[in-house]
Amino acid sequence: MADHTRARVLVASNRGPVSFSSAPDGSLTLKRGGGGLVSGLSAIEDPNTVWVCAALGEADRTAARRSPQGRLDQGGFDVGGQAVRMLDIDPEVFDQAYNGVANSTLWFLHHLLYNTPTAPVFDATAAAQWTAFESYNAAFAQALAAEAAPGAAVLVQDYHLTLVPALLRELRPDLRIGYFLHIPWAPADYFQLLPEELARAVLTGVLGADRAGFHTRRWAEAFADCCEQVLDAKIISGAGARNELSVSYQGRTTKLGVHALGADADFLRERAHRADVDERLAALREAVGGCRTIVRVDRTELSKNIVRGLQAYRHLLRSRPQWRERVVHIAFAYPSRQDLAEYRDYTAAVRRLSEEITEEFATDSWQPLILQVEDDFARSLAAYRLADVALVNPIRDGMNLVAKEVPVVSDAGCALVLSREAGAHAELADDALSINPYDVIGTAEALHRALTMPTAERAERTARLAAAATALPPQQWFLAQLAELSA
Ligand code: G6P
């Protein structure tokens, strides 16, 4: 018999579709998030879906506590017609799970960010963080088990929830469980920096899913390699054009899917032509005063490689002085994860180098660099429209949507300098200028080539990049995974 009180489709992610801030008088303001997952989920015209997420701060926790079982939609909050269950996890547990394991250990591992002579260190502190990570994942599994109708489809998102598929399967073997990783997967040697017990827990956690999805074949293969080397699991290459990989372990099989999230063209083109963006575009035009522009937009994130990007720009101005007073680098580096010392230090390094570049090259009539650190989406879109060159040079990146958004929004064509280590490179390599993200001189040369690319070629490449970037829009991306899970 159908269960009409429980959900047939569920999504789980650490950061949910809404967040709250509180005023001094205690009133809560709700903000709706954007991004692929939110727009993907809005494609399901089934009110019987539930999104399970974590309360990320005190205001979120207050909202969750004011709602029965954390169900915001039943607590009087307008969450856009969606059912959202926000988990009020003990702040100490949340901090250890989110900052200690997800954003330090797992993020650093999969993005190859460790400076290995000193890190990682798996000591008693790390062990306590891991215990917290287990209970944070268990809280998600329990909430999903409670909300899901018999045989429901559950789509678990990202590295924060890496243990959830297996935990949930134990509680509810009737469910169809999908997992999607939005970040890269580390190569097997590097992955085995983790103590064996943790490495096994991460892999068997994911293998609790019926299907595990990645943005590129490369990350799926890396995951399969780890399963083979650490668990001695069997890897099966499927027949057919897609040649899907499967991992067989302890009598169960998990299929690995490749679903390259695309940019949302309709949303971006409409949003990029609203008045607030036009205003910011006019201001940026004035600031660059007729110079060519090299644009980058990132969170201030170690893996985004902002410092080497600035070094490359400095090298360009040193080695090819003809660009002085003719180009401006617009760098938007928005705050991120400031609870972590590495991120605070990195933010300081970005600022320091920006100041050095300005000191070295600025003239009375020319600022070589505009660095902005306050998050402003409308201004990012304005910069996308204006850019002659976009610089996307991550050390590693699961996908990188900036690389996909710029060609869609660009007014007159934009040359894309793109790291070969971004997931987006798999689809955009033909028309981007590929770089090795560690090679500062090579990056500077690519910037020069991008700046000198003939206008017609730039426009043609941009059109092809935009087509490739929008091949799988968020709604289709989401619905395809749901359909495969239900098949
Ligand atoms: C990036 C990653 C996502 C991840 C998110 C978390 O955008 O690509 O995979 O979920 O960071 O960021 P947060 O601000 O929630 O820590």
TrEMBL record:
Transmembrane regions:
none
Ordered alphabetically, the record's keywords are: Glycosyltransferase, Transferase
- Keyword DNA-binding appears in the UniProt entry: no
Q: Does the keyword Transferase apply?
A: yes
Source domain of life is Bacteria
Q: Which residues form the Channel forming colicins domain?
A: 363-374
Record organism: Kitasatospora kifunensis
GO BP terms: namely: defense response to Gram-negative bacterium; killing of cells of another organism; trehalose biosynthetic process
EC number from the UniProt entry:
2.4.1.15
Q: Name one GO cellular component term.
A: cytosol
Q: Which residues form a coiled coil?
A: none
The enzyme's main class, written as a single word, is transferase
Q: Which family does it belong to?
A: Belongs to the glycosyltransferase 20 family.
A Pfam family hit: Glyco_transf_20
GO molecular function, a single term: pore-forming activity
Query: What protein name does the entry list?
Result: Trehalose 6-phosphate synthase
Q: Where is the signal peptide?
A: none
